[in-house]
Amino acid sequence: MFVYLDHAATTPVCAEATQAALEEMTAAFGNPSARHAFGQQAAQRLEERRAVVAEALGCTPEEVFFTSCGTEGDNWAIQAAVEHGRRRGRHIITTVIEHSAVLEPIKALEGKGWSVTRLKPNRQGRISPEDLRAALREDTVLVSMMLVNNELGTLQPVAECARIVKAYAPEILFHTDAVQGFLKVPFTVKELGVDLLTVSGHKIRAPKGIGVQYIRSGLKLSPLLRGGGQERGLRPGTEPTAQIAALSAACRLWMDHGAEYRAHMESLKAYALEQLPARVEGLEIVTPGDAPHICSVSLPGYPSEMLVRALSDQGICVSSGSACHKGKPSHVFAALGLPKRTAMGVLRISFGPTSTRDEVDALADALSAIRSSRVGA
Ligand code: PLP
């Protein structure tokens, strides 16, 4: 039996997305910029797809820009936001638990003289809106705070934080990395009140190589790439129409079945959080996660990398997240202040609409067998 409980890393592409991509690559492969009828048909299809993605985000099609992935979107949002606020100031607020797609571009800006405040989470992995309020300065130009943490599954109070920021100074731009939250937790960009929001297709059963950047209407930003006039001049490069078709099909599927998918993932996660500690001696729950698809557990004394490899040998895929790098716990688990033995034994378990109870049972059995056959470190 093949067990895949790593849906936060990437997801199996759904049949609807595969079919939509195949059709686009074969029957409707025109370049949307071409002036002939075949190109114009591709352009029309592209706009139909944009409208579906806009519906999923709760925004207008003009606010949707297709990118290559979440990493590109995060980098673009951060670069463009600081460029936008350059005359006002050089202070950025973010959190210590962001994905490296946010941490790294901000670190690069810090190296060029920007001042950065990094908010720390509490033991549950949540950022306090009061800490954000206290960090705001006259020269703050950008706040970047993720919606759902990719290792913990915790939901950050983005809407509340965006309200605090806008009440302090409406010119400060608010970006959220919603790569793990999009369609997993219900939201619209208007409810969140953010200026910029980043999405990645491969987390929602579309293929890799497609992302979406939401840019609030009226906000004039500069492009990351320079080239042709695609995406209203803001994201040049011939549009990846097959991936866009697939993304739109995956969005449609989540819009039609999201409530059922979320309930299914939530109940599987509850089952895992009940079964794993009961069946695997010494196993601890690190965070139950607020999002329905992610939780983290630990087998203290058993290094994550060893566990991931031993489980993989038995056909079971879970993740250590970035749980340990060269003998150190990840920045996220380090930020929680967990004991080192717990932090080093963390496993991230993540679910999708196709996950089953049998997969959770197989994971519990395999972990229990590893636990009894090896002495912990
Ligand atoms: N942000 C978060 C929270 C993620 O989990 C990921 C991917 O794991 C990314 C950004 C990067 O997205 P992509 O893989 O599409 O570049």
From TrEMBL:
Record-linked InterPro entries: Aminotrans_V_dom, Cysteine_dSase, PyrdxlP-dep_Trfase, PyrdxlP-dep_Trfase_major, PyrdxlP-dep_Trfase_small
Record's keyword terms, sorted: Pyridoxal phosphate
Gene3D superfamilies found in the cross-reference section: 1.10.260.50, Aspartate Aminotransferase, domain 1, Type I PLP-dependent aspartate aminotransferase-like (Major domain)
Flavoprotein among keywords: no
Chain ranges of the Aminotransferase class V domain: 3-363
SUPFAM superfamilies (alphabetical): PLP-dependent transferases
Cofactor: pyridoxal 5'-phosphate
PANTHER family: CYSTEINE DESULFURASE ISCS 2-RELATED, CYSTEINE DESULFURYLASE FAMILY MEMBER
Descriptive protein name: Cysteine desulfurase
Species of provenance: Pseudoflavonifractor gallinarum
